[in-house]
Design a protein that fits this description.
single chain, 487 residues, mainly alpha, two-stranded antiparallel ribbon, 19 helices, 2 strands, 72% helix
């Protein structure tokens, strides 16, 4: 007969994980501060470039800045993976946060001492993005060192559900701080956030046993693991043509959705003639929509392909609205719908990929997925930034909307897929069991990039989920964010 659980222990288990596990809660708070800091810096500097520093060429300057801010996550993915495997995770997290805090403090000192050149802001953005490229995937990989095995799913879901909130808070503050205190005040705030995160991580206690067990399991895998490692991306995707088609559709869609972070400041300055508060309102609308979509995505009925097509079509319509109607409430509502669609797509398709891709192929698949989807952001930033200096912001909105239509049609016309070798299918050709389509069950972990935002990841299909656990996350977990050994 099993002994009853003591009331105190039962009450403790009902508490949120961040309250009953001090180590995880401390490190999680550090992540919230770093993600809010980088998002605040990106939004604030983009607004500063458009409204003040790069008059006449604000579009290209902001686009180039956002491209610089996203390059480290893509370019450094192999180096990040090796660093996470080689160094103690607490040391790597502390070093990344401390390095970003130092870079922000140096920028603050420069901005206080003299006029800040645009090149200095670009260099600081590159330094912060580089540090964040190490911090985010390292934290996700460290989850087994912070929580018990039975809490891994809860920790993953909790971590992902709060990243959108951190990104939203940073986006709200960025433009407002620049208007009130300039770039110097913005840099001081970022430096304080990163320094506090480094101190929090330094006080947390990491366990090494979990890492040792994982290493032993990898050695025990033997030849089977080596054979899986030798599979190339072409071999992986060759066995899953449906997944390959989905990736191509969303890569094309990403080229237009991620441009919103360049278009919004331009639209605010040239069409609405607003200030940082207007930028904050639009950023908040997009972020809140993404958060709501992340929580409700698993409950949207329909097979993933149908839901994805509908969401891309709805995004196209929503992004066209600012090109036709220049009214703040209407634009805020359109961005709310856009964010909701992004959140729903993230939940449904990352769960679908988790079920379709064989376990041995997931690290390579998700790493490449992150690189492919992430590479569209700097391209979109540069392209729409350049166009923003020659076309009106309303025309850019219409271009975004038009670009999503072919991607939605291509996704709708994708042929059905065969069951992948070694992995169960998430779609069963419309077969229903008990009134519910089996393809609609969101059993996979809802794990991004980025992302994601979380940084400018709120409008992107989440990317890096390489190290997410294979067990299901809570049904209410929102859109995924950066995770795994490769960002």
């Amino acid at each position: 007969m099993t002994a009853p659980t003591p009331p105190a222990a039962a009450a403790s288990r009902r508490l949120p994980l961040v309250l009953r596990n001090r180590a995880f809660g401390t490190v999680w708070l550090g992540q919230v501060l770093t993600q809010a800091g980088i998002r605040m810096f990106q939004v604030g500097i983009s607004w500063w470039l458009v409204s003040d520093a790069a008059a006449g060429e604000g579009g290209f300057a902001a686009g180039l800045f956002m491209a610089v801010s996203t390059l480290p996550a893509v370019v450094l993915a192999p180096l990040v993976a090796r660093a996470i495997a080689r160094f103690a995770h607490r040391s790597l997290l502390r070093t990344a946060a401390g390095g970003a805090g130092t870079a922000a403090a140096a920028l603050a000192a420069w901005a206080c001492a003299s006029d800040l050149p645009v090149a200095a802001a670009y260099a600081a953005a590159l330094a912060l993005a580089t540090c964040q490229a190490f911090f985010d995937p390292c934290l996700t990989t460290s989850v087994p060192e912070l929580v018990d095995d039975e809490d891994i799913e809860a920790a993953t879901g909790f971590e992902l559900s709060t990243q959108s909130l951190a990104s939203l808070g940073g986006a709200l503050l960025g433009a407002l701080v620049v208007d009130a205190a300039g770039v110097a005040g913005l840099a001081v705030g970022c430096a304080a956030a990163y320094a506090t995160a480094a101190l929090l991580v330094a006080t947390a206690r990491f366990r090494t046993a979990a890492a040792d067990v994982d290493a032993g399991a990898a050695l025990d895998a033997g030849a089977g693991g080596e054979e899986a490692a030798r599979r190339t991306l072409r071999q992986i995707l060759g066995a899953m043509p449906h997944v390959r088609g989905i990736l191509l559709c969303f890569t094309a869609a990403n080229l237009f959705t991620t441009a919103v972070f360049v278009v919004m400041p331009l639209y605010t300055a040239s069409v609405l003639h607003g200030d940082g508060g207007t930028v904050a309102l639009l950023e908040a609308s997009l972020g809140v929509g993404t958060l709501i979509g992340s929580f409700t995505g698993a409950r949207v009925p329909g097979r993933p392909a149908v839901v994805g097509t509908a969401c891309l079509g709805a995004m196209a319509a929503a992004l066209a609205v600012p090109g036709l109607i220049a009214a703040r409430p209407v634009i805020a509502g359109a961005l709310l719908v856009t964010g909701w669609c992004v959140g729903v797509i993230g939940v449904r398709f990352v769960a679908l990929f988790q079920r379709l891709v064989p376990a041995a192929d997931k690290p390579a698949f998700f790493a490449v997925m992150q690189a492919v989807l992430g590479a569209t952001f700097p391209v979109a930033s540069l392209l729409f930034g350049f166009l923003g200096d020659h076309l009106s912001a309303q025309a850019l909105c219409l271009i975004q909307a038009a670009g999503l239509v072919p991607a939605a049609l291509a996704l709708a016309l994708l042929p059905g897929h065969a069951h992948p070798a070694g992995g169960p299918s998430a779609e069963t050709g419309g077969t229903e069991t008990g009134g519910t389509e089996t393809g609609d069950t969101e059993a996979g972990p809802e794990t991004e990039t980025g992302g994601t935002e979380t940084g400018p990841d709120a409008a992107r299909i989440p990317e890096s989920v390489a190290a997410a656990p294979a067990a299901p996350a809570p049904a209410s977990s929102p859109a995924p964010t950066r995770a795994g050994g490769a960002r």
